[in-house]
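Need residues for this backbone.
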């Protein structure tokens, strides 16, 4: 299920938490000690680590992933987060492609459907509040420049591949038409063979030459 099990008990510090990450140097490992260095010291704040893992900002050992470093670009932070939310909560977006715009009550109803009664009402509400708070910080409207660079690179590769394929196709001026069918046909090669016949009055010599030509050319 593409639905994070991690959630926050309270989301009041979420914006401050993300802002603190952007302002700090990325750690070798995002641990509770580093969390305390960011001045998030309560037991509820420890839940931020689980949320970062769910969003693939850090791996299971707390080591920052590429998305974490992309997030540090302040011009892209909220856009990177939106992309992370879409991936982490893909099941929710499958039910509503504008899930980020839903109200908390609407999110709760969708989560009840997805969890199929396996979560308590309190847990579902915490999950819904966490998702809503994440979406409010994220930017779902602006295209991700980092993803755009990848798309442009992919398009360049496709274009280069097409150019290679085009080289194997005859140019327009190398293709002729069949006058009877008006169908474009590839160029064909024609050979002219000249034979110098010996001077002789014996017709059998000529017969032998033409017979040999017939056998070898067809």
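Answer:
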């Amino acid at each position: 299920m593409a639905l994070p099990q991690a959630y926050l008990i309270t989301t009041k510090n979420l914006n401050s938490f993300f802002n603190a990450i952007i302002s700090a140097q990325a750690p070798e490992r995002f641990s509770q000690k580093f969390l305390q260095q960011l001045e998030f010291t309560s037991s509820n704040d420890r839940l931020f680590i689980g949320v970062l893992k769910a969003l693939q900002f850090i791996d299971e050992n707390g080591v920052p992933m590429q998305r974490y470093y992309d997030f540090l670009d302040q011009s892209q932070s909220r856009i990177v987060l939106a992309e992370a939310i879409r991936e982490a909560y893909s099941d929710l977006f499958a039910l509503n492609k504008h899930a980020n715009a839903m109200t908390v009550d609407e999110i709760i109803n969708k989560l009840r459907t997805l969890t199929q009664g396996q979560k308590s009402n309190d847990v579902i509400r915490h999950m819904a509040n966490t998702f809503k708070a994440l979406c409010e910080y994220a930017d779902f409207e602006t295209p991700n420049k980092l993803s755009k660079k990848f798309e442009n690179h992919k398009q360049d590769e496709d274009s280069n591949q097409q150019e290679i394929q085009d080289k194997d196709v005859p140019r327009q001026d190398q293709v002729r038409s069949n006058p009877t069918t008006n169908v474009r046909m590839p160029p064909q090669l024609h050979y002219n063979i000249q034979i110098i016949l010996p001077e002789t009055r014996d017709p059998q010599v000529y017969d032998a030459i033409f017979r040999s030509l017939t056998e070898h050319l067809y």
